[in-house]
Amino acid sequence: MRTIFLLMLLTGVAVPATAQRPAGYPRSYDALIAEARVERVVDVYGNADTAAMGPTIAAFRRAFPGVRVNYVELESRDLYRRAVSETRARRPSADLVWSSAMDLQAKLINDGFAQAYQSPEKPALPQAAVWKNMGYGITAEPVGFVYNRRLIPPAAVPRTHEAFERLLRDRRGPLTGRVATYDPTRSNVGYLYLTEDYGTTRDTRGLLQAIAATRPLLSRTTGPMLDAVASGRAAIAYNVVGPYALARARRDARIGVVFPRDYTIVASRVAFIARDARHPAAAKLFLDFLLSRSGQTLLARQELFPVRGDVPAPHLAADQGRPIRVGPQLLVNLDSIKRRRFLADWTAILAEGLTAK
To answer: Which CATH class name applies to 2-140+268-315?
Structure first.
């Protein structure tokens, strides 16, 4: 019966109007929709907030009735470890792996955990957002400063990295213990952003020394930093994921967000279809939906900035954004020796800050 049902779907006889292929897609996409409806589900591991993903998942279900999305939210390192361990043990795992830990995603792709798929949406994407038809950057998320509006008056809000460093040095006393940032020894995105800072400017070490001299509050995740800034325990936080900060600021007037004018790192949540996906057709369908104008518009409403340029959303100035390219260069900073040296230097900078007068 299952075989007969599939054959009917492949011929288009049983495909309802609500499951028609998107405009502009090739006719062969009908077969993919049919296969996905037989699979009935797509298992997704992601680290985007489950609540934020709700509207997008609901819209996908309406577009492709009969295909359910099983979305499992995990922290980036847990997501990486689970995908690796389950695949190596040949246990059921995700069909689509989607994470903001761009370097870990690149490693999974490089290590053979992904399968190639050329999305019909690829021509609408920036070239830097696709790697080997395996890794797809879904979002373009700026990284910025978050500050407490009461503790940092408008005239003192830094608009560049240089101004931020100057603020830290000029107001070191009042800011001691009240500057927050990621701990790169525990936070994968924190490590990624700092390596991008170093790759952008030689002035990064001086800025980190200024941060260290304030004896900063170090966090593994974004939430505690936003909580600290909102409550006033921290006056300002550095290198915070923009969408989370903007979403919080929208409902909390105590928080302000700045994307530095000299340069703003733009990160992406990278998705790939697992090599051993149990529901590959459904995974392709969901990936295409995330990359489509409809999917990107829905993500943008949740402050998950779209990677596409044809979707209405706040955009940085052309010379302001510094996108992290999806590609093999992300593997460089995962080299164990390089990582150990980088983190040893970070630890030394912190230690110097504790003894600074």
So the answer is: alpha beta
